[in-house]
Structure formats: C-alpha cells, structure tokens
C-alpha cells in the first residue's frame, strides 16, 4: 500500500530524514518508534506532502505521489491524524466531519459507535471540547475521508484511557477492512498492543524492523535497544 524508498527531507539546510526505506502493506499496522528528534514527525509530514521530498520515492497503492499535493494524496486515500490535534476551533463536530467526508468515509453515526461523546456533542464547537474529545475529533476527521492508508502521529499523547481504548478499536477495524496504518508512537506499551510490525527510527533512517510478535515476546530487548540508541546519540 505504502512504499518509501531512499526518502530525504528536512527544513532549510538541515536534513532530517536521510535515505529512509519503509513499507506498510494493506491490512498491516506498523508502529514507528524512536527517541525525540529521530525524524518521525518530519517523516509523517513528508509522506503527507506538507514538506517536499528532496530525494527518493513515495508510492501509494503503486502510484508515485512523491510530488503530489497533500489534497491529491488525500483523494487517493492517504490521511493523517497530526500531532497536537490541529482541529478548527470555530467549527462544530458536525461541520468538521461534513467538510471532511467522502463517499467511502465514516459518517457521524459510525463515528458515534466508537466515540459516543462526539455524537452527543455534534453541535459543539471544537474550542469547547475537552482535550480528549478534540483528539477523538481529529481521528474522526481522518476517518471521514475513508483512508486506505492512515498516518497517526503520536495519537495517544494526552488521551484519556477510554479514548485510547476507542483508538485501539478503530485501528482494529481499519486493519480488518484492509487499510494500512503507520503509527508513530512514543508509548511503546500501546504500540505493542496493536502493531503487526515495529520499526525503530534513528538519525533519520530505519534502524531495525521486527515483527510485532517478536517485539511482544521480548519487549525489554526493544526498550533496551531504544535506550542504547539514545545513549549513543
């Protein structure tokens, strides 16, 4: 579904993503972990087209989208839940989802089955929602587009336990429907509950990739690898 080869990107004269190779298959959840500053969010922004790639190739379902605009990538099925929510404060829940909705996407009724508070507060402006409700709204906005590949950038940050459980359910539904998920996450315990594969990113490239089963069987080894990488950096 998503293929990335030799990707390089950054800001100004600073290169952050350095020759990265990565793949996410249909129906696969890949957890991308690493220390702060490893380049994870820069990678997400580059994949979505917010930051131009300096070199390399990004393919979505076999189509080269390396130079495509963000909205064009979204039309093809790529969606993102950005770090920090970034919802439009003046729009209501209903307005947010209506603007984002595509024919294949989740409607408010389906969203309400996993995020019931959003259905209850459909006429409430985003600025008046709690932090957890805003996180749910950012997720629902992406789901409304009907993603074939969903990028999640630190989604558990600031989430309440019940919203985190709902997120776990959503990821399971997307996997069952054949969508791919790239989960960028600092919460290793949460990432291991949903990941089919775990990728460690360091210094702008992929350091190691292991199956979710192997990571769950020996989570201390993965944690130790991250600790060692932090120390070596």
Q: Describe it for me?
A:
With 233 residues, the chain is α/β, with parallel strands linked by helices. It has one domain (2-232): P-loop containing nucleotide triphosphate hydrolases (Rossmann fold). It has helices spanning 40-48, 70-75, 93-100, 108-114, 116-120, 131-143, 161-176, 188-194, 212-217, 219-232, and strands spanning 2-11, 14-24, 29-33, 55-60, 63-64, 78-81, 149-153, 180-184, 197-202, 205-211. The strands form two sheets. The protein has a six-stranded mixed beta sheet, with helices on both faces. It has a four-stranded antiparallel beta sheet with strand order 2-1-4-5, with helices on one face. Helix 3 (93-100) runs parallel beside helix 6 (131-143). The protein is globular, with a radius of gyration of 17 Å. The model has no long low-confidence stretch (mean pLDDT 89).
Looking at this protein, list some descriptive labels.
globular; 10 helices; alpha/beta; 233 residues; four-stranded antiparallel β-sheet
For the record, the count of structural domains works out to 1
In angstroms, what is the radius of gyration? 17 Å
Side-by-side strand order of the widest sheet: 6-7-8-3-9-10
Q: What is the ordering of alpha helices and beta strands?
A: EEEHEEHEHHHHEHEHEEHH
Helix content: 25-40%
CATH class category label: Alpha Beta
CATH superfamily: P-loop containing nucleotide triphosphate hydrolases
Head-to-tail CA distance between termini? 32 Å
Q: List segments where confidence is low: pLDDT < 50 over at least 5 consecutive residues.
A: none
- The overall pLDDT average reads 89
Annotation field: number of helices:
10
CATH topology: Rossmann fold
The gross shape turns out to be: globular
Structural class call reads alpha/beta
Oligomer: single chain
Per DSSP, what share of the residues sits in E-state strands of 2 or more residues? 25-35%
CATH architecture verdict: 3-Layer(aba) Sandwich
